[in-house]
UniProtKB/TrEMBL annotation:
Organism: Polaribacter filamentus
Keywords per UniProt: Signal
InterPro entries according to UniProt: Cu-Rt/internalin_Ig-like
UniProt protein name: Mucin 2, oligomeric mucus/gel-forming
Length: 741
């Protein structure tokens, strides 16, 4: 082969090869075209971000194509031109490249000028940047207003073609005057709060001189050094002198005398109010509070005045003790215990309680009238509630030492709850005018109900209700409710509302309930079917004598019942008892496993029989060979001591492979006879897919496993070859470019 020159090649078939006897020679011409290189005018370098026109899609020598990657005006890039080889005459055109240089922008850098205060000196900005770019600034420098200045590079200078403008803002801060809330004038000595060290517009600083609440003073605020552009500020705080109101003193009065309101304007013309309210019953100190809202009174101070109120004098006398109606009554004294003289009215009376009035003489200043009531008591008979009759020995409360009408005294003789007695009440000596009184208390004899004793019973036996009328005819009720399960003491409560039963007393009766006796026996262990079974004992472990039923049986699990002999001493309350003796089954039972085909899945045999005997099988399961397996019961398990081994044979049938005579290969389109549905070894079944005489096909024979003896027959395949008709064919080799492989 020659990849540099157009050439014609000849194919000669090998007619000695099978099925090639009729093949003929064939020729092919392969064209080799020369290579073409596109040419373009070089694009000049640009600055980062400059406009960059799209590259031409037709070369200077008329080659059409596309460029990649996309045009980028921010980065030096090599672009590749890919010719469109589908265009006429461009099949052998090769790629071309072009690098376009993108120069980076140069940003001048300057040291930022610090902010200044309005009017401060401002130095001219430098005409050469920190990174060596030369140019000019605009507008002119201004030290009175914050301004943005623009630096314009001189792009005619070497290396500055891509230099860009830069700006700098120079801040000019205004002068700041601290502002404060004006402090109102104060009165001499009034509290004066320290002035704030931060102004209303947030300037921090200090005040001088020291605060003075006794004299009007001008204070100066000096801003802290950190408060750029802030200036000093002053504040004058006025201090006014104090004013004391003056009043004429009010003379002392007697308690209750008229007391005129105090004047609301002082002798020196200060207006205000007095507190508390005027009180003509008590010496009080009153406070005058100036009205500081009145002109010229802002610094007026409070003033006080004490007005003396002399107390009234109440004559005091020794109270005359109460007398009994008709007793002697002495004349009252005309001079009180506290020396006040006067007279009494009305005249003395020893038959009636009377209130007498003492009137002081006119010379007794502030002395007032006084009264005294002298009580004349009537004669008093003590009254008591009669005590009801009691039963002999019943509690008898002590008689009250105070009568229903409030007379106190003592009773005699001592209380006696065994005998009817008359008691006498003697009033205390202090119970003036009270007389003696008597009371008789009746004591009745007790009645005790009698009953016939109930015999003991066994737990659960019928227990007849106790009689509600005693043998001696006392009517009543029993408690608690009857209980035939527990020895109980019952109490009879007489109905004391019945005639003649008021003094009947409670009675008790204990009814014994003997506990049931349950015979106890040692459980007989389970036996194997047919083992010897000894007769059960006729005396229990707790010595109860009796008999068992039914007769002993060593072939079936049986419940036996023990019946105590209740005629034996101490066995009257013995109850029946049962014992179950287990007779265990012998042979494990399993469902027979059906026959399988060789290799078919064979599930593990169950380790618990249908009749619940657990154990293990041996040997290991084998799905390729008919095998007899042995089940060995686990005789250590409960109720399995008598279980015996069991066997099961599982049949494994061999596989049957259908055999057929191979069908010979045919040519495409030749007749193809249907395959037989019975194999050479007599297996019946069907073939799939349908017969095809145009294509080599593998056919599958599926045995009918429902036919007798075919349960283990397996599928079989046969491939029938269909050979195609042969014509020599070659793919035309496309034209190549000079030098291509």
């Amino acid at each position: 082969m020659d990849n540099t020159l157009t050439t014609t090649y000849t194919f000669s078939p090998d007619t000695t090869q099978p099925a090639q006897a009729c093949a003929v020679t064939e020729t092919m011409t392969i064209t080799v075209n020369p290579l073409i290189t596109p040419t373009f005018t070089q694009v000049v370098a640009i600055c980062n971000g400059d406009v960059l026109a799209a590259l031409p899609t037709t070369s200077n020598n008329n080659v059409i194509g596309t460029w990649s990657p996309a045009i980028n005006n921010t980065l030096t890039t090599t672009y590749t031109f890919s010719p469109d080889t589908t265009q006429p005459g461009q099949a052998c055109v090769v790629n071309q490249t072009m690098e376009i240089t993108v120069n980076p922008l140069i940003t001048p850098t300057f040291t930022q000028v610090a902010a200044i205060c309005n009017g401060e000196s401002l130095t001219v900005l430098p005409t050469t940047s920190n990174n060596g770019v030369t140019g000019t600034w605009s507008p002119a420098m201004d030290n009175t207003a914050t301004t943005i200045y623009t630096f314009t590079p001189d792009t005619t200078q070497t290396g500055q073609a891509c230099a860009v403008n830069e700006t700098m803002t120079i801040t000019v801060n205004p002068l700041i005057t601290p502002t404060f809330t004006r402090v109102d004038p104060i009165c001499n000595g009034e509290t004066l709060t320290a002035l704030p060290t931060t102004s209303n517009n947030n300037i921090t600083g200090t005040w001088s001189p020291v605060m003075d609440n006794t004299a009007t003073t001008i204070y100066t605020f000096t801003p802290n050094a950190s408060e750029t552009c802030a200036i000093n500020q002053t504040m004058t705080i006025k201090v006014n002198p104090l004013i004391t109101p003056t009043f004429t003193q009010v003379v002392a009065i007697c308690n209750g005398d008229v007391l005129a309101a105090l004047p609301t304007t002082s002798n020196n013309n200060v207006i205000g109010t007095w507190s508390p309210a005027i009180n003509n019953t008590l010496t009080s100190t009153y406070t005058f509070s100036p009205d500081t809202t009145q002109p010229g009174q802002a610094c007026a101070v409070n003033e006080t005045m004490e007005i003396t109120v002399n107390p009234l004098i109440t004559p005091t006398f020794t109270q005359v003790a109460a007398i009994c109606n008709g007793e002697s009554l002495t004349v009252l004294p005309t001079t009180s215990n506290n020396g006040v003289t006067g007279t009494w009215s009305p005249a003395m009376d020893n038959t009636l309680t009377t209130t007498y009035t003492f009137s002081p003489d006119g010379s007794e200043t502030c002395a007032v009238n006084e009264t005294m009531t002298i009580t004349v008591n009537p004669l008093i008979t003590p009254t008591f509630t009669q005590v009801a009759a009691i039963c002999n020995g019943e509690s008898l409360a002590v008689l009250p030492p105070t009568s229903n009408n409030g007379v106190t005294g003592t009773w005699s003789p001592a209380m006696d709850n065994m005998l009817t007695t008359t008691y006498t009440f003697s009033p205390d000596a202090l119970e003036t005018c009270a007389v003696n009184e008597t009371m008789t208390i009746t004591v009745n004899p007790l009645i005790t109900p009698t009953f016939t004793k109930v015999d003991p019973i066994c737990n659960g036996e019928t227990l007849i209700a106790l009689p509600t009328t005693s043998n001696n005819n006392v009517i009543g009720t029993w408690s608690p409710a009857m209980d035939n399960t527990l020895t109980t003491t019952y109490t009879f409560l007489p109905d004391t509302t019945q005639p003649g039963q008021a003094c009947a007393v409670n009675q008790t009766m204990e009814i014994s309930v003997n506990p049931l006796i349950t015979p106890t026996f040692t459980q007989v262990a389970a036996i194997c079917n047919g083992d010897v079974l000894a007769a059960l004992p006729t005396t229990s472990n707790n010595n109860v004598i009796g008999t068992w039923s039914p007769a002993m049986d060593n072939t079936a699990t049986t419940i036996y019942t023990f019946t105590p002999d209740t005629t034996q001493p101490g066995q009257a309350c013995a109850v029946t008892e049962t014992m179950t003796i287990t007779v265990n089954p012998i042979t494990p039972i399993f469902a027979q496993v059906a026959a399988i085909c060789n290799g078919e899945t064979l599930d593990a045999l169950p380790t618990s029989s249908d009749n619940n005997i657990t154990g293990t099988w041996s040997p290991v399961m084998d799905n390729t060979l008919t095998t007899t397996y042995t089940f060995s019961p686990d005789t250590t398990q409960p109720a399995q001591a008598c279980a015996v081994t069991e066997t099961m044979t599982i049949t494994v049938n061999s596989l049957i492979t259908a055999t057929f005579t191979q069908v010979a290969a045919i040519c495409n389109g030749e007749t193809l006879i249907a395959l037989p549905t019975t194999s050479n070894n007599n297996v019946i079944g069907t073939w799939s897919p349908a017969m095809d005489n145009t294509l080599t096909t593998t056919y599958t024979f599926s045995p009918d496993t429902t036919q007798p003896g075919q349960a283990c027959a397996v599928t079989e395949t046969m491939t029938i070859t269909v050979n195609p008709l042969i014509t020599p064919i070659f793919a035309q080799v496309a034209a190549i470019c000079n030098g291509e492989a």
